[in-house]
């Protein structure tokens, strides 16, 4: 099973790369498959590649759903 997550493009770099923010985690990814992505756009990221652009409203709904699922998960004992 694969999981691709919405992430916000926060900085464009050289050579079709960017820094994205995925839930507070910043990571360098390739934009080779979505060269039109700009700072402020949401993209779907899988295995280090942005694979498509995503409507901001859809991205925020998806991120809220992930947050809700995390809140509902039982917490492991420390």
Which key features would you list for this structure?
78 residues; alpha+beta; SH3 type barrels; five-stranded antiparallel sheet; 1 helix; 5 strands; 22% helix
Task: Describe the structure in your own words.
Helix content is 22%, strand content 40%. It has 78 residues and is α+β, with helices and mostly antiparallel strands. Strands 3-2-1-4-5 form a 5-stranded antiparallel beta sheet, covered by helices on one side.
Uncertain stretches of 5 or more adjacent residues = none
How many extended strands?
5
Could you name the CATH topology? Answer: SH3 type barrels
Give the domain tally: 1
- Ends distance: 29 Å
Task: Determine the fraction of residues in helical runs and give it as a percent range.
Answer: 10-25%
User: Biggest sheet, strands in spatial order?
Assistant: 3-2-1-4-5
- Average pLDDT across residues? 90
Task: Report the sheet-strand fraction.
Answer: 35-45%
CATH class category name: Mainly Beta
Structural class: alpha+beta
Indicate the radius of gyration in whole angstroms.
14 Å
Q: Please state the overall shape, judged from the principal axes of the Cα atoms.
A: elongated
The helix count comes to 1
| Biggest sheet details | 5 strands, antiparallel
Instruction: Give the name of the CATH architecture.
Output: Roll
Listing every helix as H and every strand as E from the N terminus to the C terminus, the arrangement reads EEEEEH
């Amino acid at each position: 099973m694969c999981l691709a997550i919405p992430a916000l493009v926060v900085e464009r770099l050289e050579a079709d790369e960017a820094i994205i923010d995925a839930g507070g985690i910043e990571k360098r990814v390739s934009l080779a498959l979505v060269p039109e992505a700009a700072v402020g756009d949401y993209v779907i990221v899988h295995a280090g590649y942005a694979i498509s652009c995503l409507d901001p409203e859809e991205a925020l709904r998806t991120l809220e759903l992930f947050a809700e699922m995390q809140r509902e998960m039982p917490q492991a004992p420390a």
